Amino acid sequence: MPLRLDLVEGQRANLSAIERRAATLAPRRSVKKEWQAAWLVRAIGLIDLTTLSGDDTPERVRRLCAKARNALRQDLVEALGLSGPVTTGAVCVYPTMVSTAVKALDGSGIPVASVATGFPAGLMPLKLRLEEIRYCVAEGAGEIDIVINRALVFDQDWQGLYDEVRQMREACGPAHLKTILATGDLKTLRNVARASMVCMMAGADFIKTSTGKEGVNAVLPVGLVMTRAIRAYEEETGVKVGFKPAGGISAAKDALIWMTLMKEELGNAWLKPDLFRFGASSLLGDIERQIEHFVTGRYSAAMRHAVA
Ligand SMILES: O=C[C@H](O)COP(=O)(O)O
User: Fold this and answer.
1) Is the CB of 52 under 6 A from ligand 1?
2) Residue 60 in domain
3) pLDDT computed for residue 68 by the predictor
4) What's the structural domain count of the chain?
5) Res 307 pLDDT > 70
6) Domain containing 199: what range?
7) Residues 6+ apart with CB under 8 A from 72
8) Which of 4, 228, 250, 261 is deepest in the core (most CB within 10 A)?
9) How much of the chain, in percent, has pLDDT values that exceed 70?
10) Ligand 1 centroid vs 10 CA: distance in angstroms?
């Protein structure tokens, strides 16, 4: 849609109300027993299983893809009475690893997501950032996670941000576009709300909190602001935009809190992979460990779930 500055500038964030609401989510009694196991199996299908390290290698990416295809150990799948392997929502890698991941996931139906546009800082000339998107799509990425130019937010240059994300949307072609706001850098929740709105207007399929490299990554107050921007955008346009909290989500109990937030703020449609993903490199291991505890009554050492 065209940029509507009235809608962007109408976005406000009441810090104390948001902090109060976020504080009610964490200590709440969560789902237990078989319901918890079911929620955790659901959570696995929502993970963008991620490796974004300077020492990534094709072999590490292939191991990660093998884990994505069989995300829950076969004995646990059988003990839960599930049919077929449990898979993750996607595998997320750097651009040079896309073709390796595409080959390793062939026939699985699991999409490859690639970060792009000079991840994590985004401080490259726009021409090169757009070229990087086109490279990732040509390599076979079905989803592109771009980073926004934070300086445009600090300058409140909403037209500039809109124009860049619009061009990124076009460069994606058929691939889905996730826009990473790097909320830990954005200084205020009002900036988060406004940048969310601009990215959605420019055609983002998902808005994503963080790269995992900022000082503060996915936190609940930011999640509330972004989900409420998604709700406002849907009310205005009828279009549902997805949400991806990323960075620092590594415990199964945190995954349940995020899923509760989605259910309560946006509804059950946002508990499915077309509208919700976790960006996480180490969450799957803890989820598998908790499911093993549900099945056997015993906790295994975390190192037994080393991959992911
Ligand atoms: O987009 C995903 C993040 O980079 C993952 O962050 P994490 O390593 O803290 O789970």
Assistant:
1) yes
2) no
3) 98
4) 1
5) no
6) 5-31+95-277
7) 41, 44, 82, 85, 86, 288, 291
8) 261
9) 99
10) 31
